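#structure-requests
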Amino acid sequence: MDAGGWTVSIFVSLLLVVLVVLAIVWLVRTQNAGASNRHRLDEGGSARELLDRRLVSGEIDEDEYQRLGKAISEAPRPSKLPDHRDSRKLAGRTSARILRSNQIDG
């Protein structure tokens, strides 16, 4: 191998090492981001718990706490949260209808 071959070999090796390091950094960051998002969701709790935390931390005074607490208790509650599984079923049925209509037309 001449000098050009060695240079290319070293360059490719260094490039491979850099790519592996970048992949590891990316994986670590995405895992940590997922953990911090889960942690934030765990901290969230209900509206009442959030209100309690704001009072304890001094973000709001007692008058504001009472006013917001009343608003929370008077707010309408959703009867049922949307079920995303239903939308996937609907999408699957719609896709099946499209496929059947294409077969009939074709």
